[in-house]
Every structure is written in C-alpha cells, then in structure tokens.
Design a protein that fits this description.
The protein is an alpha+beta fold and 306 residues long. It is 48% helix and 20% strand.
C-alpha cells in the first residue's frame, strides 16, 4: 500500500465513522457540501457566491443553487454594494446564525461521541496528528533550520542508531559513538565556535541535523562537519544543500580556515554532495567498524574568509 492508498483508506474510515456520506448531514436536512457552504458564510460574512465556490472547489452553479435555497428558507440574505452594483455580498440572517449554532453543536457532539469509546488520551493524539497534517497540507515547503532544543539531542542519537542499523547494519557501538559526540558538544557549550542545526518541517517534525564542531586545540583553524543526517523522505529535496551551506557559512563566520569530515565510502550520495561543495577526498582506508567491513574516508576543503 503506497501513500495514496493509505490516505484513501483514512478517508473511507473518516467519512464512514462520522456519517459524512448520509443524505442529511447530522439530520440537519443539509448535504455535506450545503453544510460547509453555510459554515463558511458564517465565518466570512460578505463573501460572494463566486469567491465561495473558488474557495471550496465547487461548481459555481451548484453554489448558486444552494444559496438560492438558503435565501428561500430565510437562512441567507443577499446584500448590495453601493460602490459596485454587480456585487451581491452574502450574509446569514438571524435564523441562519441560529441554525448554524445548532449545527456546530451537533457536529461537536458527534465527534465527541466518536472519540468517547477510545482509550484515554487517544483523542488528544488524533487531534494533534490531524493538526500536524493540516500544517503540512497548507505549508508543505516551510522548513526551518533551528538550534537544538530540549529533546533534540536524544533524537539525534536515536535516529542515527536506527537509520544506520537499518541501512548499514551497524551495531550498538555506533549509537555509543554518536552519544559521545553529542555529549561532548553539549558539555562544551561553545556557542561561538560550535553549532548544531535541526531541520524541521511545517508540522514541527524533525527532518535532519548537522553540526559544526571544533577539531581540537591542536588544530584551532579546522572545523569538523559532524552528525549530518537526513530522514529518507527528505532526501533529494535540496534540504541537504541548504544544511551544508548553513554549516559552511557558520564555520567561516567563526574564523575557521579549513573544514574536515569523516564518512564511509558506502555513503555515495553524500560523497557526491561533498564534492559539489568543494570538498576533496584526502584519504581512504579499509577497516572494520560497528560490526561491518567499511572504507573510511576523510574529506576536506579550505574555507575562504573573504
């Protein structure tokens, strides 16, 4: 089952559970589209039929017929615009507002009843997931690179362990390595020379991380790019390039003259990204790590400071 089928399956569950396919929505005498038109008129008084049809993705003729029915029942009135005689803004009458209040109360009661049989806390989880889904639908490209917040360090360690175990077969020693690197970063607390970024989407879900850290007191001019990770569904979107640029920009601003990173040969897509950003493969050696045969690689590049 792919993403489309999973969404369709949810739609079938949702429409069936809440009775959205019934001829009369919640026994109101209105179909679902009619109820939605009435709701939107209550939210945006003064809206015209054409704008309402565009906003809801409905046929203008269908909306006009629905409005005419509402006018006949005394739920909606057509206004006039002194500045433009062609405009006919629509508003709910007092009877229409009362009808909508009752309909909204019925809708809330129906949802509450549907959730009442679920285990404690399940309704809150569903509401939170649907809210996140709404943000992803309305702002799908909004991705932020932010500093680490409480809980991020654990996520960095956990996701490295999970993804590298799945994709590379690394054992738990790799998780220990990552945990040590993250712990050192947090313990040093050097906000001038070191920084970590977490990429988050519009729903607040973490998509990846990248860190710029000092190589060490013996090489003060060298920064090390570390813990660069992207969730699989975020790869190939251009986010990796944006994260690399953020890391390089910080390193230059912090006064480093050189950047270095360590990776494995199996990470070929990452190697191509590093090469496109001016990194040169300076060493390669076969070995064994985390229960697997590996080829260690070191990549380096100078940092122009102006």
């Amino acid at each position: 089952m792919d993403d489309v089928d999973r969404i369709r399956a949810f739609n079938r569950l949702y429409t069936g559970r809440f009775g959205l396919l019934a001829r009369s929505y919640l026994g109101s005498g209105l179909g679902l589209s009619e109820a939605r038109i009435l709701h939107d008129l209550g939210e945006s008084p003064g809206t015209e039929a054409r704008a309402l049809a565009r906003a809801l993705g409905l046929d203008e003729g269908q909306v006009s017929r629905t409005i005419a029915g509402f006018v006949k029942r005394g739920l909606v009135e057509r206004g006039t615009d002194e500045g433009d005689a062609r405009r006919r803004p629509l508003r709910l009458t007092a009877a229409g507002q009362d009808f909508l209040v009752r309909l909204r109360a019925q809708s809330r009661a129906a949802v509450a009843e549907s959730l009442s049989g679920l285990p404690a806390g399940r309704g809150a989880r569903i509401a939170a997931l649907l809210e996140r889904s709404s943000r992803l639908m309305t702002a799908p490209d909004a991705i932020d690179l932010r500093d680490l917040a409480p809980g991020d360090a654990g996520w960095v360690i956990g996701r490295h362990a999970e993804l590298y175990a799945r994709d590379e077969g690394y054992d738990r020693r790799f998780e220990g390595l990552v945990a040590g690197i993250v712990a050192g970063f947090l313990d040093r607390g050097d906000t001038v020379r070191e920084r970590g970024w977490i990429a988050v989407d519009a729903a607040g879900d973490r998509l990846g991380c990248i860190f710029c850290m000092a190589e060490g007191p013996d090489e003060p001019d060298i920064a090390r790019l570390r813990l660069f990770l992207l969730e699989p569904h975020a790869r190939g979107t251009g986010l990796a390039q944006r994260m690399i640029e953020a890391c390089l920009g910080f390193a230059r601003g912090a006064g480093y003259r050189h950047m270095r990173l360590w990776t494995h040969e199996s990470h070929r897509a990452a190697g191509r990204l590093y090469a496109r950003n001016g990194f040169i493969l300076t060493s390669s050696a076969e070995g064994e790590a985390f229960g697997q045969k590996v080829v260690d690689q070191t990549w380096e590049r100078p940092l122009a400071t102006g």
